[in-house]
Amino acid sequence: MDDTEPVRAEDGCRLWTDDTGHGKPLILCHGGPGLWDMFGAVATVLSARMRVIRWDQRGCGRSERREAEDRELAVLQWSADFADPATARGYAEQLADPWFGINYECNAAITAEERQVWRETELVTACRGLAVPTLIVDGAQDIRPRWAVDSLQEALPSATRVVLPHAGHVPWLEAPDEFRTAVVNFLCPA
Question: N or C: which terminus of the chain carries fewer CB neighbours within 10 A?
Answer without folding.
Answer: C
